[in-house]
Amino acid sequence: MSDTDSQTVFVRHQMLDPQLAPVTERGAVKWMRENLFSGTFNTILTLLGIGAVYYLVSASLPWLLNGVWNANSLSECRQIIADNGGTTGACWALIKARWHQFLFGFYPQDSYWRPVLAFGLLFVALAPVLYWNDRKGAIMVAVSGVLTVLAMIGLSSPGTVDLFTIVLMAALFALAWVMPKKLVLVTLVYPFVAFFLLWGGPIAGPISVLLGLAAAAWLVMALQPRIGSILATILAVVAVALLFLGPYPLTSLLSSALQTVTGWGLPAVNSDQFGGFLLAFVIGITSISFSLPIGVILALGRQSDMFLVKTLSVGFIEFIRGVPLITLLFTASLLLQYFLPPQTNFDLILRVIILATLFSAAYLAEVIRGGLAALPRGQYEASDALGLNYWQAQRLIIMPQALKISIPGIVSTFIGLFKDTTLVSFVGLLDPLRGVTTIVRADINWKGIYWEPYIFVGVIFFVICFGMSRYSMYLERKLKTDHR
Amino acid sequence: MALATETPDTGFRLSMLIYDTRFRAITIQVIVLILFLLFLGWLVDNTIQNLAAKDKDINFSFLWNRAGYDIDQQLIPWNNDMTHGRAAIIGLLNTLVVAFFGCIFATIIGVVVGVLRLSKNWLVSRLMTVYVEAFRNVPLLLWIILVYVVFSEIRPAPKDFRITDEMAAAGTAPAAHMNLWDSVAITNRGSNIPAPLLDRPLGGFEVFDVPINFSVLATLAVIIASILANRAFLRRVRAVQEDTGIRPTTWWKSLLILFVPVSLLLWALGLHLEYPVLKGFNFQGGIAVAHSFTALLIALSLYTGAFIAEVVRAGILAISRGQTEAAFALGMRPNRTMSLIILPQALRVIIPPLISQFLNLTKNTSLGIAVSYLDLRGTLGGITLNQTGRELECMLLMMLIYLTISLIISSIMNYFNASVKLKER
After folding, report:
1. In chain B, what are the domains?
2. Which value does ipTM take for this structure?
């Protein structure tokens, strides 16, 4: 057989092994080629990006690495850094010395366990809301309980309190595991518990208010089958008004009676002792939880066919959205004394909470209105066709869908509100950012320090707000029912 | 044979006010109206009682009294002998100027970052994500205060810029130097930037102590005329294109029309820059910009820019991939696809939230109080309020002004929304 034999045809009987892709088409090289250097423009961008990262890291890394945790003043910090041969360095000793003010303001130091317990119980109360009828809620209770106990031990709270917390949290975990739905009772009672823990005073006050509200609720439940829900609601409003605002408020009578019986309470803490993140949480969480229902009602009012209701809702929403929050806060501190009956003087924190609630309710109303408008017309017509009345349609058909659509907007309003709690410093409250930091920076030992306190406060805000936005994304995915 | 026709009782019973849907709406509205009027009456009654108890009345005449305080940044002339009313106007102008520049910078930052976040470049899109998340999740107040503190603590004192005789002899450089080719001086007290000055100004006149400058008016007139001329030119080009199918080259002609007249005018007026120089204990000359303004502007632009970036990103993502594919199928090139197909549709999604971000920025300028920036809240709602003790009048007036600004911006938004809305069914 010769090479020139043209009759012989080469036929390969064995498959060749596949060759590796060229080196530029695989692995890290390919990834870099496609994602970093896919063209002139992209290469320039990448080089600029690398430059920016290098600049940031080279500027901040030595500063972070040379951080000093043990010192009594800024000059001592700088001395230590210079002794270690560094030129720049962070002085975290400030945070170590003053962290309790950043977190609690001027709250009495031996009572730190009270806000901590209230904060831990917050997550227990949130568990049934976030994970309805789900064992994940019990896990949340357990985690929150363990962290609360650890935090209390870390804050060296009294041993009896530690023991009480352990027992309480264990009981709540058992409840959450066995009967997840019953945990919602804790949520209902929580506001009163939190108020009592934070502000202290005799226990009779919160208990009597709770009893009064429970009585009104029971009245409605008992009367509703007989006289219809509308009359029952009106009756309940009247009953509550009589219980709390009437000429002889029953609750205060009850309260004084209870006081003589029990006489037990926690040492009272004044509102001006609140500060730092404790204040931000108190204002933020209260306003968030009250603004959602008000926002829903305002949104429905704005969508309503009734001219007057619609006009009032629009007027309220546009007014609140049209002025900066600062002017509303100044209204709370300066003008409320004109608008309320003479000699009424109530707590500044409460006034700020009311204004912040109204503020975020107006924004929420717009977000929810967007959700309502996004629902196809057919949903409204279908609920009418089923014979549902207005409230049934809203509760069963419209709101679940509208709220689901508006989750991102709602959560970003909440985030905005939480960030805006820092503005309360302008009316004289000790917020973590301006109030506490100004006090700390005015200390002669720490004069001239600026990056560290702001980074500390900023990081805490970032973690909370970022966590909230991630939770909203989780919720969106979980509630997604379309099949795209 | 009797038909059992039982006609409904047409008589009116009181219970129909609640249970008949025809009347219920009216009942509810009447109740709401009564409650609202009662509430309003209660507020007014309380206010009157409280005012009487404090021996006060509602009176806006304080606006014409002498103010007696200094304002360090004024767009129209100000001295402390002028009235509270004028102080309020200066404050309003300060609010608007920060809002104006803030909106421009925030839009530029937002558009660039929003587009880059969608870039295929891994590193750049990650960096932009970090920027957006960092600024969105931290209070604006922190950024304002931080920028202000950093400026006033990091920057050297004016004396560090001085070159003494010994230094000149030894050839050593001073501890600090000016930025941007010796044109901008940033000290711990404030910044000085070059000021545009004219050799041969056209003069002007004054209305209510507000100088009206003919040179500025002439420049604006020339710019507007050039823009109109350019539009007419583009219309002609379009007509030519529709007649012949060939589009004449336009870009350099447009540039000529837009820039040559105004450059000629400025050259004729003798435009030059006055640079800041160190004289005595501080820099003189140029435009002095307080750090409060700089900090507020930088923080507002970066913060709102992060939000606008998200708006832009969402707008571009909202246009379905099919639109791009359809444009490609028609044989369009990528840049034409972007300008003719994607952007017009994306803008419809982007503009409304963008304008509401502008609105937020404008309202957030009131945070200038943290760095003692004398805006509307600082003058009318701050010093004037404290000096005159007229909380009610000052707060109401201030809220009214903010409300007017907001309503103007949102009515622009509604007008725009209505004009670009998809017309269907």
Report:
1. 84-191+299-420 (1.10.3720.10), 195-274 (no CATH)
2. 0.85
